[in-house]
Amino acid sequence: MAAILALSYFHYAGSVDTTRRTISAKTSQNHYLTTKQTAPKSALFSRKKLKLPNASTREEAILLRLKSGFTEDALHLFENMNTRDPSVWNVVIRGLTTNGYFQHALEVYYRMRSEGIRADNYTYPFVIKACAGSFSLVEGQKVHSRLIKVGFDLDIYVCNSLVAMYAKLGLIGLAERVFEEQPVRDLVSWNSMIRGFVSVGEGWNALLCFREMQEVGLRPDRFSIISILGACSLECLLRYGKEIHVQVIRSRFELDVMVQTSLVDMYGKCGRVDYAETLFERIYQKNIVLWNAMIAGYSRNGKPVESFACLKKMQEEDKLNPDIITAINFLPSCAQIGALLQGKTIHGFALRKGFLPHLVLETALVDMYGKCGEQKLARKVFSNMSERNLVSWNAMIAAYVQNGHNREALELFEELWKEPLNPDATTITSILPAYAEVALLRESTQIHGYVAKLNLSSSTFISNSIVYMYAKCGDLQTARGIFDGMVYKDVISWNTIIMAYAIHGFGANSVKLFSEMKEEGIKPNASTFVSLLLSCSASGMIDEGWEYFTSMEKDYGIYPGIEHYGCMVDILGRSGNLDLAKRFVSEMPLVPTARIWGSLLAASRHHRNIEIAEHAAKHITSLGHDNTGCYVLLSNMYAEAGRWGDVERIKFQMAKEGLEKSPGCSTVENNNKIYKFINLDKSHMNTDMIYDVLSIMSRKIGEDIYINSVSKLRPLDVIRKRSTSPEFHSVRLAICFGLIQVSLGSPVFVRKNVRICEACHSAAKKIAENTGREIVVGDQKMYHHFRNGRCSCGDYW
DNA sequence: TTAGGGTTAG
């Protein structure tokens, strides 16, 4: 309800304001940089009738106009002066800078100099501010060299302005140098330096500077307090923030709304939104900035409903209109609960109000659309952005990965390399799951190299993703090596390595690791048991599976979730007791999902129980998911049972639903190249040799088949028949190619896009036995390690 | 007549 009411403003909040960007376009090409300098006090070229107090001199008249925001009138008076004192130039430069017309201020400064007027210690602080405001380091350094030449570099006002300028430009080293070298420092100097550290994210340096300032005997003022609260937020120092709060209560700043806003913000950022809320409620006169800080506090602390209610109260109680910051702060709340409608409403509102283009707002929209499952809308916003930074790219990459569009994510990541931007820890965190899903070892090794180059290998979070990525790519050994080398392992690290062994069918290792994990004092969580139960399922450890399942609640107080039940259906299915599995599904306390019925279907297929398979399939199709896999499995069962009428019926149903069986395809990686094979493939340059090896292998394993590798002219019906026969399945061609190409001693590594069929599984075991080679086949579900005539999956998959 | 300030995306 609160959400709906809160949105009413966004629906009806007026039309697009077309006038507000006039100046920003003139003052800077960068719309983001101009957000603070837009909405100037007047439009430069407005011809409003002035109603100002009488001025005794022309200079005073200019000053009055500039102070009232009538910039153009002031300039008009200035241009029509016959003689201009140096002080008039200063008044104009100051007025333009204060009103946000930084470029104009610099133009007047250069004109002043060209007319032979000496800029003085009153001129330079505003010229420096104009350089900072227009984000021009070149101009800033030019002005800096000039004032050294004319000897103003010792003036305290000039030095303080320089410190602020360099900090604003992100050059904290230069700011520090000016600060260190200035002969006299006052409270403003220290505040500028502290603020500078906070603005570049160096909270600890800000805190050290603050302490030093107090040690030299200076008492903090409201500016110092505001900045240091920012430092506490950066470093998440709740205790220190509270100490500052106590100082504030004892000081004269208790009722200062900016200080109060900084406190609300600090508590929100330090994870204590409850403290922020208590303080917020006590503040009598709330302005938009304070409301925005509170909305952000709720958003970032996972309280989207409270954030919605806060927005509603802001509009109803204080009759305040949301601004750009409100929209930016509010979007994460929409993202958290997948409130697409509300998110879209804000988007529409921002368009109507002329808030767009705006880098931060657009990035927040990309993030919101991505989290609401709308990666296409996210891409639309991203593609239309006139300016993008690394955060925007990261948001878009994450939007693709979160929605399972891993290929698109990787393509975008490739594009990012062409930009003058360097991927950071967030980029890597977002993209690693995409590498894991696409599972190409060569690419994964490359990204691992990049992670090392960025010195991110020490991050537990990133290392966990890398361990998983290698396991998914089939390289269990490297995954284990990285896990063993991790300095700090958290519960996710252990879950990941247990899962790694599960997907490779080495359940005994998973169980051993679980014991080690407990010995290390790591408490298992719900995900640990998913990994463990999957291991038991993949390795046929039926009794152990039951034990872990029952101990979850009994020993660890963890209630089994839908995924745990899914694993149990797999385990029961594997045991062959299909009636028990069916009963387990019907009696489970959670509503069975397509995945649960899918497990029962797979078990029925394995044990050739058509009746239960049909029962499971009926439930899967009623759930309206992508049923391709289910239909294919059922169709194969009917074919095996010779029920051709049912096979045709399924084929018809699939056509009716527009579904198509994905063609089987296998790949082999060798010497950094990927070789792809489809069923009956004859496109490879070594086709003859591959088919010869296949012929030899088939004979050796007792599958006497007729192969004429050179004959490509066959009757169509023979080709059709052959295309369904397993002897020429892509996985066998890939294995034979691997046997020829991959050096002895290394396993033949094949990946398959769908599950390996029974005949090929059996053939792979025998080929491994006959050749003495290790063959690894990664299919849609898991990895099969074929060694000495046996498979790690124990013939159940 | 001059300098420093609160809310902004993963």
List the helices and strands and how they pair.
Elements (H helix, E strand, L loop, with lengths): L1 H11 L9 H6 L30 H11 L2 H9 L6 H13 L3 H13 L9 H10 L3 H13 L6 H13 L3 H10 L5 H13 L3 H13 L6 H14 L2 H13 L6 H13 L3 H10 L5 H13 L3 H14 L6 H13 L3 H13 L6 H13 L3 H10 L5 H13 L3 H11 L8 H14 L2 H13 L6 H13 L3 H10 L5 H13 L3 H13 L6 H13 L3 H15 L5 H14 L2 H10 L6 H13 L3 H13 L5 H13 L3 H13 L8 E6 L2 E6 L8 H14 L15 H9 L5 H12 L6 E5 L5 H14 L3 E4 L4 E5 L2 E2 L6
Helix pairs in contact: 1-18, 1-20, 3-4, 3-5, 4-5, 5-6, 5-7, 6-7, 7-8, 7-9, 9-10, 9-11, 10-11, 11-12, 11-13, 12-13, 13-14, 13-15, 14-15, 15-16, 15-17, 16-17, 17-18, 17-19, 18-19, 19-20, 19-21, 21-22, 21-23, 22-23, 23-24, 23-25, 24-25, 25-26, 25-27, 26-27, 27-28, 27-29, 28-29, 29-30, ...
The protein binds one DNA strand of 10 nucleotides through helix 5, helix 7, helix 9, helix 11 and helix 13.
Characterization of the model:
The protein is mostly helical and 797 residues long. The radius of gyration is 34 Å and the shape is elongated. It is 64% helix and 4% strand. Strand 5 (783-787) and strand 6 form a beta hairpin. The chain has a six-stranded mixed beta sheet, with helices on one face. The structure holds one DNA strand of 10 nucleotides.
**SSE class:** mainly alpha
Span from first to last CA?
A: 48 Å
User: Biggest β-sheet: count, sense, barrel?
Assistant: 6 strands, mixed
Kindly state the percentage of residues in helix: 55-70%
Strand order of the largest sheet: 2-1-3-4-5-6
Percent in strands: under 5%
The 3D shape can be described as: elongated
Beta strands, count: 6
Low-confidence stretches: 1-48, 706-723
The total count of helices amounts to: 42
Estimated radius of gyration:
34 Å
Mean pLDDT: 85
